Amino acid sequence: MPSKPHTLSALGLISRLSRAPEEHKGHAGKVILVGGSAGMAGALLLAGNACLHLGAGWTILEMLDPASAHADHEQPELMIRLANTDPKQSLKQSLPDVLAIGPGLGTSHFATQWLKACLESEKIPLVIDADALNLIADSSELLNALQLRNQHYPGQTVLTPHPGEAARLLGQLISDIQTDRVSAVKKLVSLTQSIVILKGQHTLIAAPDRDILQCEQGNPGMGTGGMGDVLTGSISAITAQGVRHHLNLWEASCVAVQLHASAADSLMQKGTGPIGLTPSETIIEMRTLLNNLL
Ligand SMILES: NC(=O)C1=CN([C@@H]2O[C@H](COP(=O)(O)OP(=O)(O)OC[C@H]3O[C@@H](n4cnc5c(N)ncnc54)[C@H](OP(=O)(O)O)[C@@H]3O)[C@@H](O)[C@H]2O)[C@@H](O)CC1
Ligand SMILES: Nc1ncnc2c1ncn2[C@@H]1O[C@H](COP(=O)(O)OP(=O)(O)O)[C@@H](O)[C@H]1O
């Protein structure tokens, strides 16, 4: 991998998501997103809303918090259910095209069981975010399971750490990560053998045997809780459509990162931000940009 990253330029791939007249929801794929423990249901709802608005055929939320596991009247399209106490069995029955775990997941024993089941799941794309990354940082058993998954199914797992999560994974300080982000993303790839999206200003995307790419879009208006959850839902939706529209997880991740940051820039140009720019507004702007680029 060269030390100077190339510029991310992935929006041209969006035309592959164009829909033929006969297509139905089965062609857009089924996504299961796991997270939403007590007090953090919003994180999973944001990821779910992004997934729905970016085009997944079915969006299913496995919500860990019983008090939040009910239909959302604002967004009844989301299939929200209480996370099953037998995650392995649940995943076997649901047959998702894409799995994502982390937004608002927490670090409970139940959260760990779900993460284990996701890491041991069959060969489907897996997005790992937020607390799921923190759990891996704290457990050599989970890290081994992640490495093993990548040995069996290379290119099927993407991690989306912000600098805080990256620091925990590498056992470094956030300041070390930010001083040399290219070196940090290389270390994360080497440690996990995954596709890695190191978020923050000038997000980096890297993977084994690929050039490192740097996103030139984005702005500090994106510094609002929930913005990363939107990215997780977006990667999942684009990957799910990619299964039948010839976009792999790497390509879908590149598209989602650039679309996410470009939507935030577009909103800022219109005066919706940087101050007060919300993740929910960003989802709707991403949908508009995506449809304009088909
Ligand atoms: N509506 C909801 O329910 C929401 C729920 N959420 C859920 O909350 C859970 C906790 O997740 P979290 O990310 O808020 O806290 P955490 O992992 O402790 O890291 C924060 C620290 O990391 C750093 N840092 C981050 N970005 C950085 C950057 N660009 N550049 C540099 N540093 C950066 C920074 O450290 P500092 O610089 O302050 O030392 C910051 O303080 C998780 O499950 C999540 O899904 C959220 O999604 C929000 C919406
Ligand atoms: N100054 C910035 N410039 C560009 N992008 C930013 C900036 N600050 C935050 N972002 C982006 O916003 C998102 C924040 O994600 P994250 O920290 O995981 O949020 P949360 O955990 O609250 O959902 C990431 O995509 C990150 O790249």
UniProtKB/TrEMBL annotation:
Q: Where does AMP bind?
A: 199-203, 228
What does the entry list as the binding residues for (6S)-NADPHX? 43, 104, 162, 229
- Domain YjeF C-terminal: start-end pairs: 8-293
Top EC class, one word: lyase
Single GO term (MF): NAD(P)HX epimerase activity
| GO biological processes | metabolite repair; nicotinamide nucleotide metabolic process
Its biological purpose: Catalyzes the dehydration of the S-form of NAD(P)HX at the expense of ADP, which is converted to AMP. Together with NAD(P)HX epimerase, which catalyzes the epimerization of the S- and R-forms, the enzyme allows the repair of both epimers of NAD(P)HX, a damaged form of NAD(P)H that is a result of enzymatic or heat-dependent hydration.
Describe the subunit structure: Homotetramer.
Q: Kindly provide the name given to this protein in its UniProt entry.
A: ADP-dependent (S)-NAD(P)H-hydrate dehydratase
- State the organism of origin: Polynucleobacter tropicus
